[in-house]
Amino acid sequence: MSAVLESLRVRRGYTTGRGRVDVLRGVDLRIEAGEVVAILGPSGSGKSTLLHLFAALDTPDDGEVLWSGGRVTHTLPDIARRRAEHVGLVFQHHYLLAELDALENVTLPARIRGRDVSREGRDLLVAMGLGERVDAPLHALSGGERQRVAVARAMVLRPAVLLADEPTGSLDRASAIAVYALLRALARERGSAIVIVTHDEGLVADADRRLRLVDGTLHATT
Ligand SMILES: Nc1ncnc2c1ncn2[C@@H]1O[C@H](COP(=O)(O)OP(=O)(O)OP(=O)(O)O)[C@@H](O)[C@H]1O
Ligand SMILES: [Mg+2]
Fold first, then answer.
1. Is 69 helix (H, G, I), strand (E, B) or coil?
2. pLDDT, tens digit (0-9, with 9 covering 90-100), for 17-27
3. What is the rounded distance in angstroms from the CA atom of residue 152 to the CA atom of residue 89?
4. 49 in contact with ligand 1, CB cutoff 6 A
5. How far, in Å, CA of 24 to CA of 9, rounded?
6. Ligand lying closest to the C-alpha of residue 16
7. Residue of 198, 91, 106 whose CA lies nearest to 155
8. Residue 47: nearest ligand to its CA?
9. Is 26 strand, coil or helix?
10. Taking the alpha carbons of 100, 105, 109, 110 in that order, is the dihedral positive or negative?
């Protein structure tokens, strides 16, 4: 069976005023269904760059990103629909809409694609401990509550892979642990794989694999 997400010799660099920077220098990774993989690494090592490529929000200079065996690039004509079906995205800054309530934030991306997921969205918010906050405007929620809304939004279409870039980076320790635990429980229940980028090695101690991005390639941590 094909891996849900695969990266083959992926390279990506940038040309800046100070010359060429080769950020990713041949990243190979294979993520199986339901697997939880943490990616660690210092600031500037290319973790966000890599996650953008995994989400087909960007295209490698060389190498390939595959979703369930199919090659993807951000320039494919139907990539937005395919992305919505295959991956869920959570960022450090949640990009939710302040004036909408929690449930509207969760269901909006699906609604744009013509799908009514309000029942599923409500169930997810209840599962995330936000049953009392479903109708609350986003600006009335705490940081941890907002991140839980962001996780619910990412999971509502049952993606094969959840890609999370420092999803707990702006939270205090207790909220970070709570959000990560909910994210894991939800992904396990639904069979979604998780790729989580974090600076917090302790947080992801229970991940199936912990990899470190060093000098543009991934290495197993010991
Ligand atoms: N669009 C861009 N143009 C030029 N350089 C970029 C661009 N995006 C990222 N970079 C550079 O690529 C390198 C990797 O950036 P990236 O954001 O992937 O790091 P990161 O590992 O996510 O860091 P952090 O832990 O701080 O979030 C950095 O040196 C950054 O300055
Ligand atoms: Mg980053």
1. coil
2. 989 999 999 99
3. 10
4. yes
5. 9
6. 1
7. 106
8. 1
9. strand
10. negative
Name residue, tokens 């500037």: 44
Helix (H) or strand (E) holding 22: strand 19-31
Nearest CA to ligand 1 atom 8: 49
Q: How far is the CA of 51 from the centre of ligand 2 (A)?
A: 9
What sign has the CA pseudo-torsion 108, 114, 120, 122?
A: positive
**Per-residue pLDDT tens for 120-170?**
999 999 988 999 999 999 999 998 899 999 999 999 999 999 999 999 988
Nearest CA to ligand 1 atom 18: 46
Q: Whose CA is nearest to atom 27 of ligand 1?
A: 43
Full-model pTM: 0.94
Structure confidence by residue, pLDDT tens digits, 96-118: 999 999 999 999 988 988 899 99
How far is 1 from 81, CA to CA, in rounded Å?
23
* Ligand 1 closest atom vs CA 50: 18
Which residue ranges form the domains of the chain, and what is each CATH number?
A: 5-15+24-220 (3.40.50.300)
Residue 208: CB atoms within 10 A of its CB come to 14
Query: Is the Cβ atom of 15 under 6 angstroms away from ligand 1?
Result: no
Tens-digit pLDDT profile for residues 45-54: 999 999 999 9
For every residue of 35-54, DSSP letters joined together read -EEEEE--TTSSHHHHHHHH
Centre of ligand 1 from the C-alpha of residue 188, in Å: 30
Of 10, 25, 40, 48, the residue with max ligand 1 atoms within 8 A of its CB, to mutate for a pocket test, comes to 48
